[in-house]
Each structure stands twice: as structure tokens, then as C-alpha cells.
Amino acid sequence: MFRLRAWSPARRLRAKFVLLALLPLLGALGLMALAVSHQDRELAERERVLVVQTYMNARRAELRHYVDLAVSTVRPLYDSGQTDAATRRQAIQRLASLDYGSDGYFFVYDLDGEVLMHSRQPELLGRNLWDLRDPRGQPTIQQLIAQARNGGGYVEYLWQKPSSGKMVPKLGYVVALPRWHLMLGTGLYLDDMDDTLTQLDQQVRGNISATLWWMLGIAGLALLCLSVSGLWLNLSEQRIADQKLRLLAQRLVRSQEDERAHLARELHDGSSQTLVSTKLLLESALHAAQQGHSPPVPLLRQALDRLGDSLIEIRRLSHHLRPAMLDRLGLAAALEQLVAEWSEATGVAAKVFVDPGLPPLSEDIKTALFRVAQESLANVAKHAAAQQVQLSLLAEGDEARRVLHLQVSDDGRGFDAERLNHDPRQGIGLRNIRERMAAVEGSVEFLSAPGQGTQLDAQVLLGPDGGPVFTQEVSA
To answer: Per the structure, how many domains does the chain have?
Structure first.
């Protein structure tokens, strides 16, 4: 059967620490991913612009070279000064023989827009395309002729590509032959540049995706390492806590058995023997009365003394279990009596200071602080080898927030508190103190070092009724 266990405050605190460690890590990774993606896009855009500029510069130089070659072919005829139709036809025939590539050709128009030569679209010969407009509404031929009249240059426009039959962007270069009233030009289609840019964009997106996947993998590995380390730490702490719990349970059982054995010895060696002696005395007096003699007064007085001793012994035992003064006179008087008896038994000088302005305290707090004082003094007697001990009970703050302090300090040998916290086989008394204070929502601080004595400060936050303030009350 499985049993559900609520998370302890320490485990919740560890979970919060893990969450606080994860959130900045995830946030940093997210910001890094955004920054890398942004930088990659900017780099791709700059690379795209650079590719376009380089491509277009190369295309322009190529077109100018082609046109210069075509002009040099007809220049002897043009420089002859003849402008008759036969000379023009001869020049056009020479240009028609020029060709480069499947989609590279020259075209000749007169300056009024009539097609005089078109190597790839002979069906256009003789047609006037002055009013021709591309799908964007731009007057294509008018733009070419205007650029040629202005001394020649480059024009970007849409034209049907012969090899595919599709309208694609084209870069043209045209010059005018004014004496012949002609425009000569050629052009290169730019759709291959679009294909190159598309491939470049795909590569950029692939690089960005690969980078993000790498970052995701690194983040996953980091989270895995953090989770494994957190799990290992949790299991380690859980193992130490289990060991402490087992040792504490063993000590509790041993303490109960020791206390029972102690009570049994005390009752047997003290009260039991006194009562047996009293019984024998009373039996002797009864026997004398049965014989008709008067009961001996010394026997009765001795029996009465023995009964008185039994009562004193029983009171002493009950006081050892729970001092009646704690219930009758309060915590301050009980602590003074405890310190006085402890000092008399150990021979160690001890002082007590109690704040005269202490508020009324609940039974839980009085019992917890009294047991903490008992445990602290027992630890001093066992381990400290101290010469002086001081116990103080102080209250600080106002009625809205009042904190009660029980402080026990000695000038003994001290100890390494950090080592004891991580060793479940030692420091049982200190853990008992912590657990007693935790039961009333209190806390304990230890200030100690080898050779420098020890100071214990047990603190608890008091409510208006003198009881402890529990966590749910604080959060409410």
C-alpha cells in the first residue's frame, strides 16, 4: 500500500531553490536563442544584400561588354556616315548573327517603338510596341528608348523568358544609334538570382534551426545535469535524514528504557525499601496491640518518619519527571531551580537572568523551553568541560511582534557545528533541541568553535495569547 506524504518545509525550500536556479537558466537560454536568431537574420540580410550587389555589378559589367561588342560590330558601317535602308539592313543582319547562351540575344528597335530585330521572338518583327506595358503596368519599350536617348544605360523590367515562357525580371542595357534612328540593346534574366537567394535563405534558415537545436540540446543537457545533481543531493540529504531519524528513534527508545530502569531502581532502592521498613514497624506495633500491650510509641514514630521519607522521595521523583514549579510558579522559577540543582550536582558555576517583563506563556512554550534548557545543561555537563555557564530568558519587540529568547552560553571547549550537522551519528542532543523548538514553530542558532565556548539561542515568535505563531497564521 502506498502512502502519500506531504512535502516538508525544507523540501519545499529546496524545490524553490531548484526553481530559482532553473528560471534564470531557461530565461538566459531563451534570450540567447532570440539573440542568435536575430543576429543570424541580420547576417543573412547583409549577406543577401551583398550577394545582390555583387551579382548585379557582375551582370551590369557583362551587359555593357556585350553591347560594346555589338556596337563594335556595326561601327564601321555607322562611322561611314551612310543612313540609307540598305546600310541599316546590313547592320541589322550583322547583329542578328550575334548570340550568347540559350536566353542571350540582341534586339533592335527604331526610336518610335517598332521591332526591327528580335532573335528569340521573330513573331514580334514589324510590330510597334510603343504602348506595351508589363504586368506591373510599366511602359517597357518607352523606358528602354528613353534610356537610350539619354546616352544609354541600364533598365530593369519584366519580359517573357524564351526558354520557360514565363514573365521574369530582366536587366537590359541599351544604346542609341541616332543617325540610323535605332536603339540597340541586350538583357540578362534575373530569375537565376532569385533561385540563388532562395537557396541562400534556405541555408540561413537551416543554420538558424541547427543553432537553435544545438542550444536546445545544451539546455536539455544542462537541465538533465541539474536534475541529476538535485536528485543526488536530495537522496543524499534524505539518506542522512533517515539515518538521523533512525538514531533519534533509537535514542528515544533507549531514553524511555533508561528512564524506566532509573525509576524502577529509585522506587526499589528508595521508596520500596522505606515502605517495606515502615510495613515491618507497623506490623510490630500491630502484633504488640494484639498481645494486649500498648503499641510502642518509638515504633510508631519511626514508622511515621519512614512514611515522611517515602513522600519526600516520591515528590523528588515526580519533580524529576516534570517539576511542579513549572506549573505553579512558571518558567522563570522552574529554570532558576533547574540551574541551581544542576550547578550543585556538577560543581560548575551557573547564573540565571530572567527578563522581568516576560509575558504570560502557553504550556507548549514553557515545556519546550524548559526541556531545551535541560538538554543544553546536560550537553554542557557531558561535553563542554566548562567553568561558567549563564542562562538567560529574554523577550524583545512589542505586543504586535514579540520574540522570546532562551540563551545558554558556556566557556567550555566548544565544537565544530558544521561537522555535527552533516554527521548523523553525532549531535543527537542538538537535534533534539532543534526538534523541540520546531514543534512550537521556533528556531535555534548555535555559535561555537573549538576552544571558544558555545552559545545557544532558542527563539520563538509569540502570539497575542502567549502561544507560538504557526506558519499558517503568519501566511494568513
So the answer is: 2
What's at 337, amino acid-wise? Q
Among 302, 313, 55, 88, smallest CA distance to 190 is for 55
Residue 389 grid coordinates: 555557564
Residue finishing a domain among 189, 218, 253: 189
- DSSP alpha helices (H): ranges in 267-352? 273-290, 297-321, 324-328, 331-346
Of 154, 172, 189, which closes a domain? 189
Which of 128, 100, 75, 94 has the alpha carbon at shortest distance from 186? 100
128: domain range?
52-189
Q: If phi over 0 gives left and psi between -120 and 50 gives alpha, with beta otherwise, what is residue 4?
A: beta
Map residue 132 onto helix, strand or coil: coil
What residues pair up with 439 in beta bridges, in sequence order? Answer: none
- Residue carrying the nine cell digits 518509638: 298
- On whether residue 203 sits in a domain, the answer given is no
Amino acid occupying residue 53: Q
Q: By C-alpha distance, which of 115, 119, 139, 113 is closest to 70?
A: 119
Beta strands in 121-231 (DSSP E): 153-160, 167-177, 182-189
Per-residue pLDDT reduced to its tens digit, 44-97: 778 778 877 888 888 889 889 989 988 898 898 888 888 888 888 898 888 888
- From the number of C-beta atoms within 10 Å of its C-beta (0-12, 13-18, 19+), residue 442 rates as buried
| Exposure class string for 306-328: b at 16+ Cβ within 10 A, else e | beebbeebeeeeeeeeebebbee
The answer to the question of residue 98 being in a domain is yes
Beta bridge partners of 454: 410, 448
Query: Position 89: which residue type?
Result: R
| pLDDT of 316 over the 60 cut | yes
Q: Which is nearest to 37 in space by CA: 215, 274, 286?
A: 215
